[in-house]
Each structure stands twice: as structure tokens, then as C-alpha cells.
Design a protein that fits this description.
6-stranded mixed beta sheet, 278 residues, alpha/beta, 2-enoyl-CoA Hydratase, Chain A, domain 1, 14% strand, 3-stranded mixed beta sheet
Amino acid sequence: MTGADTLSVLSVETSDHVATVFLDRPEKRNAMNMAFFDELPSLMARLASNPEVRCVVLAARGPHFCVGLDLNALAGIGATGREEPQPSPAESARRTHDEIIRLQASISSVAECRKPVIAAVHGYCLGGGIDLVSACDIRVCSKDAVFSVRETKMAMVADIGSLARLPAILSAGHLAELVFTGRDLGADEAARIGLVNRVYEDAPACLEGARSTAAEIAANAPLAVEGAKAVIAEGRRSQIETAQRYVAAWNAGHLRSHDLEEAVAAFFEKRPPDFEGR
């Protein structure tokens, strides 16, 4: 059903109408590589079309949920993978724009799944991890969870979902503080500001709690649940699509900055970055 033999960075367990999708690259703290963005939409489509699945839980193997985009994957954005002359600035911007749209669509496959999706977060949930969980319908976490919309610390504007979907989840002030500072957010504060519904003692309890909620959802009339999700989503669709288009256009022109190169170099050299605003 799930084409498990085609998955390399995701895995699936299905029981009693609940499918649990695991981010399954624990040795890399579930950093998002290009395989992740390829596998996620295909898997979500298969789960959405499977009548035996009524709810999906999104969890992770290893000590952390997701540390965000794999920096090696970032280096490939806008490239063709072929040896060729250096593209013009316009061609480079076009490639970057197209790739951002592709990555957005991958994350959006979670939001667009007809079945409700519950994120069960433990450990780090950073950068792209926030994009992913903001696309879920319900979020729960363990006490050790740490959230961060970290892109500004890496000289980037978050462009694959967070800034489009978090306005419907958080108040304007809380969202602005998290995005502009890039600071870490603990589990209790995440619950207080509404980023997560509940906090559990540890990762196993979090997964069990998410599955329990999923089972409660799965016990209801599936067409009614799907309809309720569709109606809720429709009210937000225009705002999300507009924000996604805008940030894709913005980053096509601004992503490859000197400050981004400095942020990546500082990350690998384990030092504070020295941003110059160019």
C-alpha cells in the first residue's frame, strides 16, 4: 500500500485505521534532503487514497524530530546537476524560484492530505521541521521538544510553509518574536502560545498520545471528518497560497546573498556569523 520498498528516508506503520509516518534518517537528525522532498508527497497521496487509513501521525526515529533542511541539499537549489556555463542572474533566479515552489508543494502535501495529520514532536524541531509541523492539523510534543523558526539566523526567509501557515496558529506578536529572533522555544512555552495542543513526559508517551487522539478521530465517520478538514482548509487557502507565491518570488531574488554564504561558513566553522546586510 505505502510502497515501502521505494522509501529511503521515511517509513510507515499502519494499524487500526491509523498510519504512522516516521522521518527515518536518525543518523542525520532527520535533516531534510532531496529524497525527503521526493518521497513525502508520493507517500501522503497514497495514504490519502487508502480507505483503510482514516488518520495519520507524523513522528520521527532517533533523538530528534527534525533539524531542518540539510545544508548539502540547500547547496543544490537552483542548480541543474549538469556541468555547464555559469547561469545568468535571471536564469539562476528562475531555477531558484522553481525549486522553492517544488519544495513548498512537498510540504503542502501534508496539509492537503484528506485525512487529519497529527505531528508528534520530540527533541529538536528546527527550521524546515517547523514548516512540516505547521502543515499538520494537530501538534503535540514531549517535554524535551525544542522549536525554532531559525531561518533568520541563517540569513534566509523561511519559504516552504512556516510564514504562510503559522499566522493561523499563533498570535501576531508571538509569531513576529519567534521569526525575527530565531530563538529556541521550549515545550511548555510552545503549549502556552498554542503551537502545540499538549505536552507529554517523553517521546514514547508523546507518540502514544498522538496515536490515541488519532484513534479517537478514526472512530468517527470518515467522510464527515474529511469534510470538516476540507472546510477548515478552504477558509485559509487563499491566504496561504498568496503568502507562498510571495515568498518564492522574494527568495528567488534574495536567497543567494553574501550573508547566507557567511551563515553557512560560520555554521561549519562553529563560530558566530558576521552579517553585513548584503
